[in-house]
Hints:
This protein is of the alpha/beta class. 42% of the residues lie in helices and 16% in strands.
Amino acid sequence: PRSKKTLSPTLAVGADHAGFALKEYMKEYLDQPDLEVIDLGCDSVDSCDYPEFAHAVAQAVEKGTADAGILVCGTGIGMSMAANRHKNIRAALCCDVEQAKMSRAHNDANVLCLGGRFISQERAVAIADAFLSTPFEGGRHKRRVDKI
Ligand code: RB5
């Protein structure tokens, strides 16, 4: 059984060619009754440019079309750089479960970035599960997030 989700219900997902396979795998994991997934591409392993998908997912979260986003490229780095150019987007590149928990608890991250060439499918699912089930702690962390 999955953990209870605190970040839900609509998720925008995006990837470039290097993240495509992991995005497709993540969509299977995210196919749950309490989640709705909007796939903003890419649609194949053909070479493409990660900022296009980072901007699409970030805009969906900015506009409220999605409550949160998941972005996958080779490293997760380019996706996080591009998504974080958007106002009120807090994109967190997470390589393990603890980082994912902290990105929610302390940083109120609303976009999870993953490196498809660096983590296994199992780890990616565990990271996403932690990201989606950890609430923001608020308090002093809200003061700090407000200063971003
Ligand atoms: C694509 O080769 C790769 O540069 C991209 O997926 C990503 O890792 C960029 O940050």
